[in-house]
Each structure stands twice: as structure tokens, then as C-alpha cells.
Design brief:
The structure holds 2 protein chains of 2 kinds. Chain A is an all-alpha fold. Chain A contains 12 helices and 2 strands. Chain A has a two-stranded antiparallel ribbon with strand order 1-2. By secondary structure, chain B is of the alpha/beta class. Chain B folds into 4 domains: about 170 residues, 3-Layer(aba) Sandwich (Rossmann fold), CATH 3.40.50; about 60 residues, no CATH class; about 180 residues, P-loop containing nucleotide triphosphate hydrolases (Rossmann fold, 3-Layer(aba) Sandwich); about 80 residues, no CATH class. In chain B, helix 5 runs parallel beside helix 6 and helix 14 runs parallel beside helix 15. Classes of the chains: A mainly alpha, B alpha/beta. At the A-B interface, helix 7 and helix 8 of A face helix 2 of B. The complex binds adenosine-5'-triphosphate and magnesium ion.
């Protein structure tokens, strides 16, 4: 029995570790989409966040500086997306995809120049400074739930961020304005809300959280830089946003689900299971498809679930 | 000199252009304290544009605005709100997924970071009670009827303490009863000393409400008059630039063969609830059957059933004796059924496509607009040009996207397409809703023209005047059933009113005079 509990605790610990970067990016994208902007550049932004956080930390031994740089890089890339889709009113899908392509390419290039390979292949990732789990005394000893308290600082921060993000969205004036902009920009404008400013603000804010999510990957979850370190997480987040029904409080659910798959996968592999790794690797993506199908079906039944009505639509005041 | 207080609002030489359109051409306008100014004009005359300038949504190219004698710069709706200007827009400005209370406070200046919703809800309840406008502050907008939504718009004005009310066709989408209720509330607000600019196409509202009238034509002010010194006929002539007939001459009908026969038709609405419960009637060629009733009693479903857009769960529909029950819309089109839907941009036209394509959207299947499945754009354009001329559609060019036209002109384009394609039955749903007097007259005239040419018309309308002047027989719809069919000449408003409230025709054999006393 204790053996089983220990196993459960360890799976849960890994789940939360794996889910942290997903949760940050999901929260960010929820805020962006709530303002009516669809940002498909997440994958590229996470990769750039990961590589810049790692490189900064690698050279300075200051992981917090790495986090800061990742946040700034995420914000800058999101600002490009905001400029293209809000000011230039470009197609948001195209703009987002180009950001992903651009970010992916640049991250891989930077990884080669700044990472271990540029230094005669030392496994720099493993020796560099990073965020290590901080065990909270006593609490971390509790079976199963102790997993919550065996995490790194960024995960602890995430615990704080989720309720705050929920409170801000549903209980404050600014949250009300944000939701109105994504649902009905024309109405919001007529009611005196600055639609353009709101969209810029939350697109950039979303980029910051996405960059932070990337930083968690390279500084805590899988310390170091490996090519394509995100493994498509940026895409999974798009589905997680739908799964969470654009509600920050639910962002954690999807992250746990997908993080959980990672953890089980990890556990099975270390336990030497006979299932070929490719099948296990497929799981998160298969689940993404299932989530999309189920949520779309659910959406057609209920009035309150659903994408912000103006998601993906450019807004201009004097348009008709 | 200073005996007269300055106007609460004054616009001087306002010029506003859109690509290809001069929407406001050096407009001058004054609003005195406590006054109701009616702003009249055809569809597309520039009324809404002018008002949007006042609330800071549109930036004028030229001109100045003065509030209480001082020049002001209104750059955003917030600036307008700070000056006490509040507007009810032509289209609802509400967020459907939010509650009434949330909509009321949305974007307000000086709201605390964390608004106290309980207090706000209580305050809204208080206002609703005071003005006798029942609304549940906690209800979601999507759950409300059109009439209730308009009440929320009024609540917003009151809650924000607007002193200068701008009302852009607030009653256009309301039923007569709802319009009366709304007007009563507005009257109370005026009596409390607020000033208002009131846009409407309904002459009785102008006469009942306003102190002065300002008439716009093609973006220019053509007349300003005291209401007491004018009359509807003169105003209509000023607006349109020609004489307008409020009552059309109608030759007695000469019904021919049955065109549409409905026998015990049942259908469900979008929520899956029964919407039509045993509808039976016949329309013959050369005859207009009017459908009266309070909105939401099955009108929409009826129109969709006879155009093939909604499945019938029971009963039969025959067109010219041919069974058409549950056939595809294309079968109905081929059988000669034309449809002027209530939802102009959603169902009647493709907003982003040119006027010309929208007009040829029905004839494109046959020669000369297509040969062997290949479109012939030149022919399509020629056809569109001809229609634009024949139906007097005001558009900068045939290539203009139709969403940029005024409501009246979009309706004329749809009318042009549907009437040209109409071979047997014309189904018209609220065809003159939101249209100015001139366009309304044109639409009604076209419908009568169809009747003269031996087509059958199903006219669904909530405007009893329209039914009296166009229809030959009037059927009243109540909860998906026909309460009775009366000849238009013999029907009285009170009779119809009782039937609309659910009394079958047989029960109302009381003389009209007595009914009047009781009501
Ligand atoms: N955002 C816009 N872009 C381009 N053209 C516009 C725009 N808004 C209005 N117009 C054009 O400006 C003119 C005036 O339009 P406006 O909406 O002010 O008319 P209106 O008098 O309010 O008509 P209605 O009675 O139909 O409401 C019309 O020709 C219209 O097509
Ligand atoms: Mg208008």
C-alpha cells in the first residue's frame, strides 16, 4: 500500500512539474483570447522563452534574470503579433503561424550558438544554475498531497497566479472590460472602453506568461536546451484554452491532465513497459483531438461555454 | 440678452465623409434645455452618423460642437459621458453573455476596481421600479426579449445620469405595445428636465413627442420646424423630396387559382418546442394574405416552413397543387417561391459581396447570367445595373459592398432580386422594418404590384397599418395557431388586438363599439 502511495505521489509530483509550463501559457492565452485576439504563435514564443532563459542563466548563473529575459522576449514577440493583428488588422491565424515559424527557427539557431554545442559539446544544461524543487517541511511528507509541496519556485508562483487571474477576470472592473472587448468590441467601444489598448495590453500580457512557461521548461522541468524542447506544448495549449472554457480557474485542469500523461509516460518508460515509446508519445496529441471534439459538442449544447464571440476578428471603429 | 439659456448642445458646420459618401454636409443643429428635437431623414440621410459624432465614436472632418455654450472636443464616448450625453444606438450595444447589471456598468468612469455588484443590482432594481420598467438585473442579455433589451439600454442612460439623451430609432424593432411602454418611460425622463434628440421613422411618434423637428436630406439640413406648425405629410415631403402616399390605392382583389395551401402544418422552433401547431390556410394568385400577431408567436417559423428552410413535423404544404412538404429550399425556389427575410444582412444578403452580386444571386443559375455552369460576369453586371435603376437603389457603384448601403437600400436590392425571380409566391417578412417613409412606400407599392400581376403574397408584419393597406385578408397568429382570418376591409384594430391576445375569431362576435369600451 505504501508502495502504491509513493508511486502516486511521484506521479503527481511529475504531473505538476510537467503541467507548470502548460498552465502559464494557458493562462496567458486565455487572457489574450478573451480580448478577441487569437495567438497561434505560442509554440514559437515558448521556444524562444526557453532558449533565452537558458542562455541567460548559462552565462550569468542568474536564473531569475533568465526568467525576466524570457518574459521580455515573450512580450516582444506578442507585441509583434498585436501590431500585425490589431493595428494592421492582418489575418490573426497567418500572423500567429508566422510567429511560430519565426520563433522556432530563431530558437534553434540561438540554441546552437549559445548552447552546449557552441562550447565543445559540454553538457552545459545539466551543470548550469537552475530552479530546483524546494521541499516544504512537513507538508511535503504528506502522502499524495505532499506532491504539491515538492515543487520549484515557479510552480509555487503558479499556485498563486491561478486564483489571482480568476479574480481579476471575473470580479474586477478591468476583467469586465476585457471580457466585453472579446465578446463585443463595438459595444465595448461605444461604452467607452479603449478596444485597441485593451487588445495590445492582454496580447502582450499573454506573451509574457507564455515566455515564462518556456523558461520553466529550460530552467526547471528539463534543465538545459534541447532542440524542440517544447515538443508541441504551444499547440496543446491552444486546445487547453478551449478545454478550460476560457476560465483561468480551469487552466490547471488541462495542465494536470496533460502533465499527467507525461508523468505516466515517464513512469512507464522507467518501469520498462513494453509499449513502444512512439505510442506513448502520441498520447497527448490524441487527447488533444478528443478534447476538441468533446468541447465542440459540449459548446453546441450550452450557452455559457464558448469562445469569445469576436475571437479572431479585427476591429475598426468606422467600419460597418 | 442673457435671458435665454444657451443651447445644451450645438453642432456647427459638421462635415463627415466615408469613402465615396458625404454623410454629413455642414450640418448645424441646436438642442435647447428640456427640449425634444426629432431628427428626421430618409435611410442613409446621415442621422446616425451625426449622432455618432456627438458621442465621440466618429471624428468629423470639419466643424465644432458646443455644450452649454462652451466649445468641447468629444474624442471618445467617455468624453461624451462626462458631458452628460448618453445614446441609445440603432443597434443594441449590449454584451449578450453578460448580465444586465454588468452591461449597465460596463466601461463606466469612476467605477471602483472591484465593483460591488450587490449594491449595483439593488440600485438598478430601484431605478426599474421608479420608472416602472420591469427588468431582472441578474438575467443574462441573451435570455431577454428584444423589448427587454431596449429597456436595458434605457436603464444604462439613467444609471449613468445622462442629461442629454440621444435616441436612435429606439422603437424600430419593438412591437406596438413595447413601443408604447418605452415612449411612456421616455416621457417621464423628459418631464424630469432632460433634453433629447429623437430619431424615428414613425410620424405619430414625431407628432406626439417632439417640440421641434429637424429634417436631413443627403447629409444636409433642409428644414427645421416647430412640431406644432407642421404635419406628417409636409415632413414626409421634406424628407423624401417628393409627395409620399401614406395610404396606397388598392384595386379589389381578383383571386385566381390556389398558389399555396397549408394543411395542418406543425413545426418546431430552434429550441425544439412546438412553434406551429396546426396551421391551415390557402393563398390564391392575385391575393395578399397578411399575418398579424405579436412577435414570437410562430411568424419566423411560418416563413421558414413555406420557403423550405425548416422541416415540417406534421401536415402538408402544396404549391400550385404540387406536394412540397419537407423539400429543399432549392425546390421551393424552382417552384417560384421568393423570400424577403426579416434578417436582411444575415439571411437576405451577403454583406461583404458587391451590390451587383447580391442582386444576381438568384438568377445566376440560368441563362443569360450563366451558360453551361459558367458565370457571365458582364451579364450579371448588366442585370444588376438595370435593377439598380428600376428599383432606385442608391449605391455609389454596383461594386460597392452591400453592407455599406443604408437599410432601405439593402432592402430594395433584396426586393429587386426576389421580385425579379418571383413566379408564384412572394413571402415577405417585416419588409418595411426600419425603413423611412419613402422606402416603406416603395416596398409596399412593389408588393401590391406583385399582386396585380397575379402572384400570391404572404406578408408577415407587426405593423397593422401596413396590413390594412396592403393585405386582402388578415390572419392572426397566436401561439402557433391561426385565431381567425378576416377580410382587411372588415377588420378593426380592436378585433385584431383581441385575436392577437389569444381569442379565436368565433368568440369575438361582439360589436366593435362595445369592445372598445371594455378595453
Ligand atoms: N462606417 C461606415 N462606413 C462607410 N459608410 C458609412 C458608414 N456609416 C454610414 N455610412 C454611409 O453614410 C451614409 C449615412 O448613413 P447613416 O447610417 O448615418 O444613415 P441614417 O440616416 O442613420 O439612416 P437609417 O435611417 O437607415 O438609420 C449612408 O450612405 C451610409 O451608407
Ligand atoms: Mg441610422
Amino acid at each position: 500500500m505504501t508502495e502504491f502511495l509513493r508511486l502516486l505521489t511521484s506521479v503527481l509530483t511529475i504531473t505538476l512539474q510537467a503541467g507548470t509550463s502548460l498552465t502559464y501559457a494557458t493562462l496567458g492565452e486565455i487572457y489574450t483570447e478573451r480580448s478577441g485576439i487569437l495567438n497561434l504563435g505560442l509554440e514559437g514564443m515558448m521556444l524562444m522563452g526557453a532558449v533565452t532563459a537558458f542562455a541567460t542563466t548559462y552565462y550569468t548563473d542568474l536564473p531569475w534574470l533568465g526568467v525576466l529575459v524570457a518574459i521580455i522576449v515573450g512580450a516582444a514577440m506578442a507585441a509583434i503579433h498585436a501590431f500585425l493583428s490589431v493595428t494592421m488588422r492582418a489575418n490573426q491565424v497567418v500572423s500567429g503561424l508566422s510567429i511560430t515559424l519565426f520563433g522556432g527557427g530563431l530558437a534553434s539557431f540561438l540554441g546552437q550558438r549559445l548552447g552546449p554545442e557552441a562550447h565543445s559539446g559540454r553538457l552545459a544544461g545539466l551543470v548550469a544554475e537552475r530552479f530546483r524543487p524546494i521541499l516544504i517541511p512537513f507538508l511535503s511528507e504528506v502522502p499524495v498531497l505532499g506532491a504539491l509541496f515538492r515543487q520549484d519556485i515557479l510552480t509555487y508562483l503558479m499556485y498563486l497566479l491561478i486564483p489571482l487571474a480568476w479574480y481579476y477576470m471575473y470580479k474586477t472592473r478591468n476583467g469586465l472590460n476585457l471580457r466585453a472587448v472579446g465578446e463585443a468590441p463595438r459595444t465595448a467601444d461605444a461604452m467607452g472602453i479603449d478596444v485597441i489598448k485593451t487588445r495590445y495590453l492582454y496580447t502582450i500580457f499573454g506573451g509574457m506568461l507564455t515566455g515564462l512557461g518556456g523558461a520553466h521548461l529550460s530552467l526547471a522541468y528539463a534543465p538545459g536546451w534541447t532542440e524542440n524542447i517544447t515538443g508541441g506544448r504551444g499547440w496543446i495549449v491552444i486546445a487547453l484554452v478551449i478545454f478550460s472554457m476560457w476560465n483561468p480557474a480551469r487552466a490547471i485542469l488541462g495542465a494536470i491532465l496533460f502533465g499527467g500523461i507525461n508523468a505516466v509516460q515517464f513512469r512507464l518508460q522507467t518501469a520498462g513497459a513494453r509499449i513502444p515509446a512512439s505510442y506513448l508519445n502520441m498520447l497527448p496529441y490524441l487527447l488533444t483531438i478528443v478534447v476538441l471534439v468533446v468541447m465542440t459538442w459540449w459548446e453546441s449544447l450550452s450557452h455559457l461555454v464558448g469562445a469569445p464571440a469576436a475571437l479572431g476578428q479585427a476591429y475598426m471603429r468606422e467600419d460597418k | 440678452m442673457n435671458d435665454n439659456p444657451p443651447p445644451v448642445l450645438e453642432m456647427r458646420n459638421i462635415v463627415k465623409r466615408f469613402p465615396g459618401v458625404l454623410a454629413n454636409d455642414h450640418v448645424n443643429l441646436k438642442l435647447h434645455p428640456g427640449e425634444v428635437l426629432a431628427l428626421l431623414g430618409e435611410n442613409g440621410a446621415g442621422k446616425s452618423t451625426l449622432m455618432n459624432v456627438l458621442v465621440g465614436l466618429y471624428r468629423p472632418e470639419e466643424g465644432e460642437v458646443y455644450a452649454r455654450g462652451e466649445q468641447v472636443d468629444i474624442g471618445s464616448p467617455n468624453d461624451a459621458a462626462a458631458l452628460g450625453i448618453g445614446m441609445v444606438h440603432q443597434n443594441f450595444k449590449l454584451v449578450p453573455t453578460m448580465t444586465v447589471a454588468e452591461n449597465v456598468i460596463l466601461g463606466m468612469n469612476g467605477l471602483p476596481f472591484r465593483p460591488n455588484m450587490d449594491e449595483i443590482v439593488e440600485c438598478i432594481r430601484e431605478i426599474a421600479r421608479h420608472y416602472n420598467m420591469p427588468v431582472d438585473p441578474k438575467a443574462y442579455i441573451w435570455q431577454l426579449s428584444v423589448g427587454e433589451q431596449q429597456r436595458v439600454e434605457i436603464l444604462k442612460l439613467i444609471y449613468r445620469g445622462a442629461e442629454i439623451l440621444i435616441l436612435d430609432e429606439p422603437t424600430a424593432v419593438l412591437t406596438p405595445q413595447e413601443a408604447r411602454d418605452l415612449n411612456r418611460v421616455l416621457q417621464v425622463m423628459i418631464d424630469e428636465g432632460k433634453s433629447a434628440i429623437f430619431i424615428t421613422h414613425k410620424m405619430d411618434e414625431v407628432m406626439a413627442f417632439s417640440d421641434r423637428v429637424c429634417v436631413l436630406q443627403h447629409g444636409r439640413v433642409v428644414a427645421t420646424k416647430y412640431t406644432a406648425e407642421t404635419n406628417p405629410q409636409e415632413l414626409a415631403t421634406l424628407m423624401v423630396g417628393r409627395e409620399v402616399l401614406f395610404r396606397l390605392d388598392k384595386a379589389p382583389s381578383q383571386p385566381g387559382d390556389p398558389m399555396l395551401e397549408m394543411r395542418d402544418v406543425h413545426a418546431k422552433n430552434n429550441k425544439g418546442l412546438p412553434a406551429l401547431q396546426g396551421i391551415s390556410f390557402t393563398i390564391r394568385r392575385g391575393e395578399v394574405l397578411g399575418i398579424a400577431g405579436v412577435a414570437g408567436n410562430g411568424q419566423r417559423e411560418l416563413a421558414e416552413v413555406v420557403t423550405g428552410l425548416r422541416p415540417v413535423t406534421q401536415g402538408h404544404i402544396q404549391i400550385e397543387g404540387q406536394e412540397r412538404t419537407n423539400r429543399q429550399p432549392l425546390d421551393f425556389i424552382k417552384a417560384g417561391v421568393s423570400h424577403i427575410p426579416a434578417d436582411r444582412i444575415g439571411m437576405g444578403a451577403v454583406g461583404n459581396m458587391p451590390v451587383s452580386d447580391n442582386i444576381s444571386m438568384k438568377g445566376y443559375r440560368q441563362s443569360p447570367m450563366a451558360e453551361k455552369g459558367i458565370l457571365r460576369p458582364r451579364q450579371m453586371l448588366r442585370f444588376a445595373r438595370e435593377m439598380i435603376k428600376r428599383f432606385e437603389i442608391a449605391t455609389p457603384t454596383p461594386a460597392t459592398r452591400i453592407k455599406f448601403l443604408s437599410g432601405g437600400n439593402i432592402q430594395k436590392a433584396i426586393l429587386a432580386r426576389e421580385i425579379d425571380a418571383c413566379k408564384g409566391l412572394l413571402v415577405a417578412v417585416y419588409p418595411s422594418r426600419g425603413l423611412d417613409v419613402g422606402a416603406t412606400e416603395a416596398v409596399r407599392r412593389r408588393i401590391l404590384e406583385q399582386r396585380e400581376q397575379g402572384r400570391a403574397v404572404l406578408l408577415i408584419s407587426e405593423d397593422l397599418d401596413e396590413l390594412f393597406s396592403v393585405a386582402d385578408r388578415i390572419a392572426v397568429l397566436y401561439e402557433g395557431r391561426v385565431m381567425g382570418v378576416v377580410p382587411a376591409e372588415e377588420a378593426s384594430i380592436d378585433q385584431l388586438g383581441l385575436m392577437m391576445a389569444g381569442s379565436p375569431a368565433e368568440e369575438i362576435d361582439v360589436p366593435t363599439a362595445r369592445v372598445m369600451e371594455e378595453v
